Amino acid sequence: MKVKINKYLQEYILPSLGRGKGVGLSSLCALCLLCVACTDTWNEHYDVTEGGMADQPTLLENIKSDASLANFYRAIVGIGGEATLNSPQQLTVWAPKGMTKEQADSIIAVYQNDKANYESKFGTTQRWSDNRAVKQFFQNHIALYSRSVSSLTDDTIAMMNRKYMHLLGTSQTQGTLDGNPFSEAVISSNGMLYKVDNLQRFFPNVREYLEQQARLDSISELIADYDEYELDEEASVPGEVVDGKTQYLDSVTVLYNPLLMSYGYIQREDSTYSLVAPTNEVWAKYYDEYKNYYVYNPTVLNADSLAEANTKFSIVRGLFFNTSTENKFNRHPEDSLVNTSYFERQQHNPRRNVYYHPFDNGGILSGLESVECSNGRVYIDNKGVIDPRTTFFYRTDLSANFAQYYEVPKNASNEDKMNISQGQYIIYDNDSSFNILKTHNYVEVSSKTPSDQSEIAYKLPSILSGVYYNIYVVTVPNMNSGLPCWFQVKHSERNAKGNFPTAQNFVNPHPVTEGSVENSDVLIRQSNYNRCFVAGTEKVDTILIQSAVQFPYSSVGVDDEMARLSILSFGPSSPSYREAIYTRTLRLSEIILVPFATKEEAEAAADDIDAFNDELLEANKEN
Prior knowledge:
Blueprint: H1 2-12, H2 25-32, H3 40-44, H4 59-64, H5 70-78, H6 82-86, E1 91-96, H7 101-122, H8 132-138, E2 142-144, E3 154-158, E4 164-169, E5 175-177, E6 180-188, E7 191-196, H9 206-212, H10 217-225, E8 228-231, E9 237-242, E10 245-250, E11 253-256, H11 258-263, E12 273-278, H12 280-290, H13 303-316, E13 320-322, E14 336-338, E15 354-356, E16 369-373, E17 376-381, E18 396-399, E19 406-407, E20 418-429, E21 432-447, E22 455-459, E23 468-475, E24 485-493, E25 504-505, H14 520-523, E26 533-535, E27 541-549, E28 563-570, E29 586-596, H15 599-604, H16 611-622
Parallel strand pairs: 1-7, 12-17
Antiparallel strand pairs: 1-2, 3-4, 4-5, 5-6, 6-7, 8-11, 9-10, 12-13, 14-15, 16-17, 18-29, 19-22, 20-21, 21-29, 22-28, 23-27, 23-29, 24-25, 24-26, 24-28
Helix pairs in contact: 1-7, 5-7, 7-8, 12-13
């Protein structure tokens, strides 16, 4: 049976690359409603009052009584299509004369296999119209409304599966449907029956093409895992309200896929998408690499499932491209393409989700097999062309003034020990005091007890495990005091039991030395001066506080805090120094984490915060 299924899918469900004459999408809805009656003589056949169509057999009866359509009828019965063709709804059927018994049995096998798989997965009966055999065979030969043809017919029509086909008439009984000739017209009580020479080839959309290709099973099965049915309240018939919930007399459900809602409507005929589809071999390569980035603390609920899901999301998130002409980001695809994960305000990662010169030699689409689909294209990726640095392996910038990221220590009464305020540091153009070059939002932290250190701790979200991070702090000068702020940094993370151990100090990779900052002679008297950082008085400064640090556990998708960065002011406690040559008031604008795959890469880029993005930009430009 499996052989027959594959034979049908390969021979009759493959896309037809030669398309008929089409029209703009804006005209299709109107075209679908057209029903042309070309002569008065022909119209008489449709006159119910004169005993025209009403006296004729139904579509199903005409198909059953025609020996040349015996195998078509066999397939219809095998997949449960009789009721549709016996109903009073007006339809037009293009029935294949050349269909064989083997082809009919292959279609029936597809129907039964889909139905069984669905029931095994969901525990309920599959909706009939969602079965592949119904969509790709039965509905692919039927259009709504009774359609006559003439020598003037040249239309694009929508089939029941919403596929658009080119209908060309040469007479009242002859023509072609997407190039497939028909030469007989049989009037039925519930529509028109035309007899075509061959099975009508199915032109798949992007998702349907994935489902047909064994070499693309990995991505296709992931998408299918997120299929679910949800109630369509507008289409359902409401009844009484019981315990605050509406009971529906007739409930209508629709197929919903949250994964595709997030990344692209590759299942819709009225959309236009391109998809870079990794072969199973490339998928396995990605998976083996990415799974190391999602090792979770054993205390995390459903850690294994979370790791599996995020590993796969990391593969698919950069594969979808909205190539509609209305999409402003992809109007010039020869220059650059932007995937659907792109967002306009990613100011710190301007090259993320962007691919320059994709069709040029070395570009992401160059050399890939391209397959036309009814709503876009599939590019078969047998190389692994998507660089993870353009999708999920990217620099993270945390705004230090966002309250969801930080917390301050409490006293015995559970009150904040710190004063917290928000501010803006504005940089103006030297040539024009009215021209703002940049605005830095910041948080100001000061202890409520002047002799104490100022302290604030930041939760580090979306950390990848096993990678090497360079970590930076962006400080803002204190214009009120005009004094530098000396500070220390502590890093801690939950252990395998879920607890935060005693924090450990980072070592400053560039120790403070005499003459490097104002009043450094005070600081170098302190035994731990080489573990301090300095927020200067003259500029917004980006300070490297750790190079090539690894986190054993990922925090992607975890609500609980898994790793934190504590920043504490530092300096002598003597009142003679305090607020005279330094300040303990912290002003912080950002926490920046830049990931690298190897320790060597991280250390080489430690002094250049833009090296990560600049390297990627140059690589894209060269392509």
